[in-house]
Design a protein that fits this description.
With 211 residues, this protein is an alpha+beta fold. It has a domain at 138-199: Winged helix-like DNA-binding domain superfamily/Winged helix DNA-binding domain (Arc Repressor Mutant, subunit A). Helices cover 32% and strands 22% of the residues. Residues 1-123 form the HU domain.
């Protein structure tokens, strides 16, 4: 599994140099968002904790973090980083022009730890030739249509074929196929080290699912 990037060029903010291009810089192409359920589902094979235990621990972390931040503490999670609160108010020139009632919570800031940054320094990255802003890149709906069109003449589809059909990365293919399984559109079987995905057939008209 690897991360993909695209090269982008920001518009020149100086109107006097509108014809001058700024240098290209890399930007990560997101594969999507791992939500709590998926995070726990993947973590359970690497831990002796049950999914319920992990969900409870995450909830406890959230509750305690809120408590500490609310009372003015920074919260450092070793190996991850430090969370802190920022405030907002209307602009004033003198301290006596504003009262505590006019100062409010703004956001939670995160500063990554050195350990986390060091562990990510060796992350492999590859150029993504197809990006969401590129009209040649198919949408999620178009990818799904391609999958079921392929399954009309083939018994199953695997990850590499999905990557070929949709021009996407391995990690995005994995997430998309897993989503279609969770939505009940596909089912999967493991053959050796490969996952094969099959179309879920709907019951014929008049048939009922056995209880």
């Amino acid at each position: 599994m690897s991360a993909n990037y695209k090269l982008v060029r920001n518009p020149n903010p100086n109107p006097e140099e509108s014809g001058k291009s700024l240098p290209l810089h890399p930007r990560l192409v997101s594969c999507g968002t791992i939500h709590t359920g998926e995070f726990i589902n993947r973590a359970k094979s690497r831990s002796s904790f049950s999914p319920a235990d992990m969900k409870g621990i995450l909830q406890l972390f959230q509750d305690m973090m809120v408590d500490f931040l609310m009372y003015g503490y920074n919260v450092e999670l070793e190996g991850i980083g430090t969370f802190s609160v920022s405030l907002k108010s209307r602009p004033v020139m003198e301290k006596n022009e504003i009262r505590a009632e006019s100062i409010h919570f703004k956001d939670v800031k995160f500063r990554s730890s050195k350990e986390l940054r060091d562990r990510l320094k060796t992350m492999p990255v590859f150029r993504d030739e197809y990006t969401i802003s590129d009209p040649a890149y198919p949408s999620a709906k178009e990818c799904e249509q391609e999958v079921f069109r392929y399954l009309e003449t083939n018994p199953f589809i695997h990850q590499k074929k999905y990557m070929s059909l949709c021009g996407c990365s391995r990690s995005k293919a994995s997430l998309d196929l897993r989503r279609m399984v969770e939505e009940g559109k596909l089912r999967w079987e493991k053959l050796g080290t490969s996952h094969l995905y099959y179309k879920v057939e709907e019951p014929a008209s008049g048939e009922t699912n056995p209880k």
